[in-house]
Amino acid sequence: MKWMNTINRLPLMALAMTALVGTGCKKENLNPIPQTVLSDATAFSSPARISQQVFGVYSVIKSGQFLGGRALVYQDVRGEDWINVTTNGVTAFGVWNFSITEGDNQVENFWAAGYAAINRANVVLEGIDANPSVIPSTLANQYKAEVRFARALSYFYLQSLYARRPFNADNGASLSVPLRLTPNKSSEGAPLARATQTQVFTQILEDLNYAETNLPGTYGVAGDSNVVRAHKNAAIAMKMRVYMHMNRWQDVITEGNKLVSTAAPFQSPSNITHRLATTALAPFRTPYTNAENVFSMPMSVTNSPGTQNGLGGYWTNEFGLNSAGISGSIPATDARRINFFTPPVGTTPARWTKFNDDLNNYVPIIRYAEVMLNLAEALARQASGTTVDARGLALLNAVRNRSDVSVSWNPATKNDLINAILTERRVEFLGEGFRSLDIMRQGIDFPAKASVSSVPSSSVSYVWPIPASELQLNPLVVRNN
After folding, report:
1. Is 434 helix (H, G, I), strand (E, B) or coil?
2. Tens-place pLDDT, residues 126-156
3. Taking the alpha carbons of 220, 226, 230, 236 in that order, is the dihedral positive or negative?
4. Does residue 408 contact residue 278 with C-beta atoms inside 8 Å?
5. What residue segments make up the domains of the chain, in order of their start?
6. What is the pLDDT of residue 302?
7. pLDDT tens-digit profile of 325-367?
8. DSSP secondary structure letters along 261-292
9. What angle do CA 104, 109, 115 make, to 5 degrees?
10. Cβ-count burial 262-279 (b if 16+ within 10 Å, e if not)
């Protein structure tokens, strides 16, 4: 069944008023099964019902149409490291070749999934505030922090595709997406103009700062809550990513210092002890609760991303590796090549098996490897003159040597170090939805690939169109042109 095309068509009961089974912190409880429909008066009337409304927010952001799959796929295939195999318009062929239009199902569905998550978050925030005596204030603030973290994630990914220009093209002055901060319970009040990128990033950072302040440092050692629920380190790491996209390098360093020790072996000095897993394969195989996994979307047989949404299916069926892309430069001694690279057979392109099972994996949203490389890049860019920042280089080589102890980066200049970090990101995060984000934050053109020409940063095709349904139902929204 196709996702509804716009938030304006999503009824309140479907968005927010389901009572959900289960009360623990396991991944199954972040995908609770709807049991009954509750009224406004009862949805937040008990601690159990409030906790399940919070878990419901997680269940919406992990939709396969959103952070459970397609968000990462779309961001990766827009780059130059993949070759489309099936020419299937349903599974990102138009995204890959930059031919999507405002009426395309992928354009419509991604927007709808993102705003469904945002509206769910807004409903829960309002419900908690409207029932202040049901749970202690500290717990209420924690729940609101979890929900605001989810809202920040949702706005980040929506802005990354639908904003008219990358932030650094005009310092955030270009139009982004409508900034909805209150529940939309009917078509009334739906018209809302697009905010600027600066306004959206400001709200994202406000949500993440609130989250850092009010989230727990850890949920303890039981279950997988330290991986599938928001916590302080996840909020800090997400702030680093946002500041990266704003070129606020000193802010990246300030946040990164909260998560990364000053010297090797690198790990977070407080809250959850995050660090690199011992092998390149470990973050992507069970158990997924390893120390590298900062925040993920849990999938299982009973809670899957849905048909044609899972990462494993995309990278082994729909897309193959572009031999002219980054995969062609990964040394044979690199564990990432050894573990994930399936050589081509005849004319069939090589495949990437980082995700080997759509029905039993955790979709990685934030890994500690990203935290380390984000900090490394910020340190490199902030270095004076042509100096190679020693800590930035050490962080870079820690990631590289985890996969290949025989090969280390040895840049001669500051720019060489920056380029080495950007190259390492392409290898380390291949298939995880970072390539398009890294291209756009640099303001560079999308490179040509196979039959697809380069897409200049000034082109309207550089970003996604605003969905046709939103243009129809929201008279204050304008097109990307």
Report:
1. coil
2. 999 999 999 999 999 999 999 999 999 999 9
3. positive
4. no
5. 7-254+280-365+429-460
6. 86
7. 999 999 999 999 999 999 998 889 999 999 988 888 899 999 9
8. -SSSSPB-SSSS--B--SSSSGGGSS---STT
9. 135
10. eeeebbbeebbebbbbee
**Residue written as token pair 């802005």:** 159
Tokens 């609130």 found at: 210
Using CA atoms, how far apart are residues 82 and 352, in angstroms rounded to an integer? 10
pLDDT single digits (tens) 222-232: 789 999 999 99
Whether omega before 265 lies within 30 degrees of 0, making that bond cis, reads: yes
Q: What distance in Å separates the CA atoms of residue 401 and residue 399, rounded to the nearest whole number?
A: 6
Q: Which amino acid is at 195?
A: A
The pTM for the full model equals: 0.92
What is the percent of the chain where pLDDT is above 90?
86
80 touches 439 (CB < 8 A): no
Alpha carbon distance 252, 113 (integer Å): 29
Which CATH number is associated with domain 7-254+280-365+429-460? 1.25.40.390
pLDDT of residue 303: 87
Rounded alpha-carbon distances, angstroms, from residue 85 to 123, 146, 347: 41, 39, 11
Calpha distance 167→282 (Å, rounded):
34
Instruction: State the amino acid at position 57 in one-letter form.
Output: V
